[in-house]
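Contributing new records

If you add data, match the layout below exactly. Sequence lines come first and carry their own label; structure lines follow with theirs. Keep one chain per record. Anything else will be rejected by the validation script.
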Amino acid sequence: MSGSATQRTALFARQQPGGFWNTADIKDQPNNIWFVGNAETYSANAAGNGRNPDRPFATLDYAVSHPLVDAGDLFYILPMHTENLALDSTVDVDVANLKIVGLGWGGNRPTFTCTAVAGDFKLAGSCGWLENILFINAVDNSTGLLEVSAADWTIVNCEFRETLAVYADVMLLTTAAADRLHIYDCKFYGNVADGAVSLIEIVGGSHIHIHDCYFYGNCDTGVIQVITTPTVGLRVHDCTIWQLDDTAGAAGVQMILDTITTSTGIMGPNLRLVGIVNAANITEAVTGATFNLIDPVYVVNAVAEKAMIIDWLASTDA
């Protein structure tokens, strides 16, 4: 019979250098653990900080650029942490294989506020994880609060909001390098008045996967749109998309739009698409010449009406 010395669990214990003893599931915390939180009294961007939640780093950009950061490191951003995105790449996560997790809930989640048109939070190192962060736009015509410019990122349980009477051109932007981007359980709240171009703008990339998200905003074009470079293998399903643009014609109802017309992807199942232009054709809620649809994809385009299945041409057995 095996003795207690041979019994195993998933837990792993170690002492952080300059920090404290930590016992955790090693699959969640495989390497160094770092803390960021400028609401803490003793936070500082200094070599001796970051190992302990009582003495965290003061900014995320400093934390991820620390010389001891390595692949597999985990960053906890503490509740009430705030930073302004006042420049292009204010936060530049340019190290690969990092996991960044915000702690807290509602308005006390770590919050990054865009205060300049080009101000952004950039995911430039590949193979990362970003979770539970609140992004707020506080300037007109901002060009992307969060930019994904590397492959294999997962973005989960993040929220994007507008402040009163300002309008981001786009909230989340990709480059053609954002292959296999995975976005789920996120919320995007645009303003009601006209201003946004889109909430997610996809520029190329392959096998981007978006699901279980909520979108609400007045977007001049598609709420989710592909521009400049075709995307390959895009998947969007299990989402609610509420388009508040009241332009007559197709523009007022488009929720998912490929402006290139050669992108490939599967839209659906379980899409709930809501517009406010009764005269627009239901068909244009999803516009992509080389997309495929899997029902149910429900579309409603006026108040006090019931949604119908989108009226794309059904496949036949030839």
